Amino acid sequence: MSLNRPHSDIENGGVAPVRAIRGAFLDFVADPFFTHEADAVRYHQDGLLVINETGHIQAFGDYATIADRYGDIPTQLYRDRLIMPGFIDTHIHFPQIGMMAAYGEQLLEWLNKYTFPTERKFQDPDYARDMADKFLDELLRNGTTTALVFAAVFPQSVDAFFEAAQARNLRMIAGKVMMDRHAPDYLRDTAESAYTETKALIEKWHKKERLLYAVTPRFAVTSSPAQLQKAGQLLTEYPDVYLHTHLSENINEVAFVQDLFPECDGYLDTYDQAGLVKDKSIFAHGVQLTDQEFQRLSAAGAAIAFCPTSNLFLGSGLFKIEQAKARENPVKLGLGTDVGAGTSFSILQTANEAYKVAQLRQQKLSPFKALFLATLGGARALSLDHQLGSFDPGKEADFIVLHPQATPLMALRNPEPTAKTVAALADLTFSLVIMGDDRTVEATYIMGEKSWG
Amino acid sequence: MSLNRPHSDIENGGVAPVRAIRGAFLDFVADPFFTHEADAVRYHQDGLLVINETGHIQAFGDYATIADRYGDIPTQLYRDRLIMPGFIDTHIHFPQIGMMAAYGEQLLEWLNKYTFPTERKFQDPDYARDMADKFLDELLRNGTTTALVFAAVFPQSVDAFFEAAQARNLRMIAGKVMMDRHAPDYLRDTAESAYTETKALIEKWHKKERLLYAVTPRFAVTSSPAQLQKAGQLLTEYPDVYLHTHLSENINEVAFVQDLFPECDGYLDTYDQAGLVKDKSIFAHGVQLTDQEFQRLSAAGAAIAFCPTSNLFLGSGLFKIEQAKARENPVKLGLGTDVGAGTSFSILQTANEAYKVAQLRQQKLSPFKALFLATLGGARALSLDHQLGSFDPGKEADFIVLHPQATPLMALRNPEPTAKTVAALADLTFSLVIMGDDRTVEATYIMGEKSWG
Predict the structure, then answer these.
(1) Is B360 in the A-facing interface, judged by CB distances under 8 Å?
(2) Structurally, what CATH architecture does the domain formed by A87-381 represent?
(3) Touching check for A13 and chain B: CB below 8 Å?
(4) Predicted confidence band at A13 (pLDDT cuts at 50, 70, 90)?
(5) Looking at the domain covering B5-85+390-452, what would its CATH class be?
């Protein structure tokens, strides 16, 4: 017992620990695609997570080991639950929250028929604010604490999103869509206006509290070469902002891009020639990538957002997980829901379909690999692993409490809700991946404070 | 107003109407794969369903049209809901309820590693009874009112299932698994014992109240030619029982069957040579069927149970819906969850993945087509369409009440929960197919009585 513990933490250059969470904790200390799974997983069946007054993790470990030092601060005990770092969604469209389940089309037709008319509504700031609140509530209900987000083409849609995220103290990355062709008039900007508006939004929002900006050309179909060049100029002027776009989702899209950019050597090259392929660049989908494009993404340190429910819903195809995660030329990889083409806000349901995509390709996606992609892997894809994605001290305390018996069927599947071995943990977490949904998330904490549940 | 209406119904050879349900009703009067969808769908935005004292449908129609005659009997009003015939699951394994989400294997290895040890537990009648109760509760929670069910190899597992189904007054079809090879000793019967035990179970259960029996050889891998012959003998002796088995699910399985039956012309022929391909035969999966096999199934009037969540979970492949539903040689088709290889008890979630399978094959599965398969199509696949699957008077009153705003996200998607046009109904029901789950089912009625909700 150390009654003077807060004092000594402060003396050690820290801040005061203010609360703790006790329960079973799972996170990752290495990538299970490249490290033996038992070595990549960190599991404390009876663990303690100590949070300090700034909402960061002060200490983390076995309760028996660190309770001596932290046992006297207010502690919330979660029995028969599994606590994990918050889920990270590496690709989602906030204006599409109300248009999920739009019937019968593949990518290009789906955009024209459903998406563009829906996004038009986000010109209205009041509407955009209302939807931003609903969108963030839904993310938190599903245990997603950080996301890389497409707003609409209208700067006010970005303001609405960031204001709502700031009010919730969330670490979110977003940007205004840039699109100057192959879209209805009411959604088109120009190369120049996109540049000016984006620049103003970066100045206004990037690094404001926990918020970060992503330069966001929709995709090569809807951005002229001149607009892509302007996006590249912004990345040069602001080297620490992100680039977020779509890449090689659908066969017809790839062919269309090739027609539009005859001077380019494939789809990725349309971005590369504009200086958009960097280590803070995240490309959604990549279902149709060539070997050469995988190599280029690897060399650039860029990331792919794998969006299985969307890829199946739009019939885009089966992403090659094992190629992104090859020992030669690995590419950073996260999971994306891609709502509204995605069919669920739940990263668990997204992992369910990731498993199925792997199975159809005769590959196995273990629950630990899937949950790594959902947490530390996603943080690495977003270059946020120094701040998020695991319970390492110093990181931001965004985490979730999962209920392995959330439904009668899950209670039957998991008569023992707390794993005593790593093998039992693999089995338990696989049931969360396959059978889990929003109901599995009992509570969501942001910077150490309960935000949902 | 007709105060003497019960009397006149009885005089007309009917029985007394005892209750009515008022609300929005959707069912099918034809197959939307072959009939213009608007002609196949029957929709009453303000309808009335009248149930008689035997639990059958006495009358059905627009409230304004038939309320005169039935307006004075006790009526339950469902506002902002959609009422449909109960869902029909044409392939599910009751002993596998507790083993969903078994990791990492494809069909044959999955059977050996997970399924066989699990099914062993159903030798214990107490355990089997407990699981049968949980299984039927879960079906009702998901709006499934009739299912074609594999029990285990043990006759007591069939007794347990039928006793539980009888207690709930359900129309269920089930049978004892026959398997005399390529399985652990503890699960094997013999050709002769399978025959004798099945015969006794048919005598005991077939047509007992609403229960029906299916002769159930697991599949050609685990039944010797002699056992398949015995199954055929049972179908000859009891021409109105069903045949329920698996067919052409996985490539390795098809190759194994070909090795085991060198004298047969393909997988289906192993059943055909034993006299098992008939109009009350239901074959689960059919992912790997040849054109010739589709033709044979069509000619025999046999049915396929399409099980998309299972086919994706085990990586079996993409079923060719459009071939089963071709104008030339159509094959009767229903949806199956195939729990425990299937990943959900929900026929809505099953339809979600059926849509995705179709999309990956560049086909469109409309919500009406999917919901037809889930109701009248399933009833036809099970030769029960004279008793189930729509609201035609005389049919058994098994139906469900769906809530289009069951979750915050569905409420956002469906601000108007009641469709005023067939186009709006298509949009609304597509959201149920893509976003719905057990929560979408607010109530389940069996023979006119509320059984769940």
Answers:
(1) yes
(2) Alpha-Beta Barrel (3.20)
(3) no
(4) low
(5) mainly beta
